[in-house]
TrEMBL record:
This is Adenosine deaminase. NCBIfam families: aden_deam. It catalyses: N(6)-methyl-AMP + H2O + H(+) = IMP + methylamine. Its cofactor is Zn(2+). Residues 7-322 form the Adenosine deaminase domain. InterPro entries: A_deaminase_dom, Ado/ade_deaminase, Metal_Hydrolase. Signal peptide: none annotated. GO terms for molecular function: adenosine deaminase activity; metal ion binding. Pfam families: A_deaminase (PF00962). The keyword Zinc applies.
Length: 331
C-alpha cells in the first residue's frame, strides 16, 4: 500500500509543537541541527508528560510577533501537504503569545489569516482550535473561550483544554459551559498522564464532544463502551503516547484494541517536531505493528471527518475526496 498517497485527516495537532528545522532556521538564524534537536524535539522516552511539555517552551519563545506566527503557520501547511492531509485542525493557546506586546485578539487574527492563506495556497481545508491550559485561572479560560466566540465564522472552529493533566479541571468548568451555551465545539485532553478516571472527570465536568488522547479509557471497558455509545471521538497520537511513557513502544499501544471495540478514533501526530514524526510515519508504524490495511485507515479517517469541527457541506466534500483517494487502493 502506498501510504504516502492516501488522503489523511488530522484533528490533534499543536501548532507550537510542530516547528520544522527549516522554519526554526528562519526564526533563529545560526541554530545548528544539534541545537534544534536538543531544544525542539522531546526525548524518545520522557520521564513524564511534564518533561514532554517543557519542549514547547523553545518554540513558543519564537512565536511572539506577526511574522513569526505567520511563518510557523505556513510551515505547518507545507508539512501537511507533504503528508497528503486534506483536512486539519491546528490548536494553540493564544495567551502564550503575548510577550512582544500582541493582544490575544491580534494573535488569533494573525493565525486565522495565515491559516486562510495556507488553505488558499495548498487546497487543504483547515480549522483552528483555541486552547486553555490546565494551570490557567478561570478568568484566563473564560478569556480564551470568548476569543473562540469572537472569531466564530473565521477559521476558528473549537475550544480545548491542554497541558498538565494532573492539574484539576475546576477552573475550566465555566468556560466549557459557556462554549456549550454558545455553540462552540469542544475537545479536551485526558486519559494520557492519568488513567480512565481523568477521562471520566472530563466527560462529567466539561462534557466535550472529543477527547485528546483518551487511550487510557481502554483500562476500563465500561468507560470505553460509554464513549462509543455517546459517540465521543478519541484523538489518538501513538508516538507521543510512547514518549510520555504510557506505552513502551508503538507495538504495545492499545489503538488496535480501541479500533476493534468500534470506538470512533483518529490517528494524529500531536506535535510533529516534539514527537519528531509525520502523519505518514505514524501510519507506517501502525501498518508495521498491527498489519493495518487500507480499510482500517479509511475507517479512522471517516470517523475523523464525522467528528471534525466543520460544517456538514465541508464534511460531505471531505468524505467524497477521501473515498476517491482510497478507491484505487481498496481491493
Amino acid at each position: 500500500m502506498d501510504i504516502q498517497q492516501l488522503p489523511k485527516i488530522e484533528l490533534h495537532l499543536h501548532l507550537d509543537c510542530s516547528l520544522s528545522y527549516d522554519v526554526v532556521k528562519k526564526l533563529k538564524p545560526g541554530i545548528t541541527k544539534e541545537q534544534y534537536e536538543k531544544e525542539f524535539i522531546a526525548p524518545a522516552n520522557c520521564s513524564s508528560l511534564e518533561e514532554y511539555l517543557k519542549c514547547a517552551n523553545a518554540p513558543i519563545a519564537i512565536m511572539q510577533t506577526p511574522e513569526q506566527l505567520e511563518l510557523v503557520t505556513q510551515d505547518l501547511f507545507e508539512q501537511l501537504n507533504a503528508d497528503n492531509v486534506i483536512y486539519a485542525e491546528l490548536r494553540f493557546a493564544p495567551l502564550q503569545h503575548l510577550e512582544k506586546g500582541l493582544s490575544p485578539e491580534q494573535v488569533v487574527d494573525i493565525v486565522a489569516k495565515a491559516t486562510k492563506k495556507g488553505i488558499a495556497e495548498t487546497g487543504i481545508e483547515a480549522g483552528i482550535i483555541l486552547c486553555t491550559l490546565r494551570h490557567f485561572s478561570e478568568e484566563q479560560s473564560m478569556q480564551t473561550v470568548k476569543l473562540a466566540e469572537q472569531f466564530k465564522g473565521t477559521k476558528v472552529v473549537g475550544f480545548d483544554i491542554a497541558a498538565d493533566e494532573t492539574q484539576p479541571v475546576e477552573n475550566h468548568v465555566k468556560a466549557f459551559q459557556y462554549a456549550r451555551e454558545h455553540g462552540i465545539p469542544c475537545t479536551a485532553h485526558a486519559g494520557e498522564a492519568r488513567g480512565p478516571e481523568s477521562v471520566e472527570e472530563v466527560i462529567t465536568q466539561l462534557k466535550p464532544q472529543r477527547i485528546g488522547h483518551g487511550v487510557r479509557s481502554a483500562e476500563n471497558p465500561e468507560l470505553l463502551d460509554h464513549l462509543k455509545k455517546h459517540d465521543i471521538h478519541l484523538e489518538v497520537c501513538p508516538t507521543s503516547n510512547v514518549q510520555t511513557g504510557i506505552f513502551d513502544s508503538v507495538s504495545q499501544h492499545n489503538l488496535h484494541y480501541i479500533y476493534q471495540n468500534g470506538n470512533s478514533m483518529s490517528i494524529n501526530t500531536d506535535g510533529r517536531a516534539i514527537s519528531n514524526v509525520s502523519l505518514l510515519e505514524e501510519y507506517q508504524k501502525i501498518e508495521q505493528h498491527f498489519s493495518w490495511q487500507e480499510r482500517h485507515f479509511l475507517q479512522c479517517n471517516q470517523y475523523a471527518i464525522d467528528a471534525a469541527f466543520t460544517d456538514p457541506q465541508t464534511k460531505a466534500e471531505l468524505h467524497k475526496k477521501l473515498l476517491s483517494g482510497f478507491k484505487r487502493f481498496l481491493h
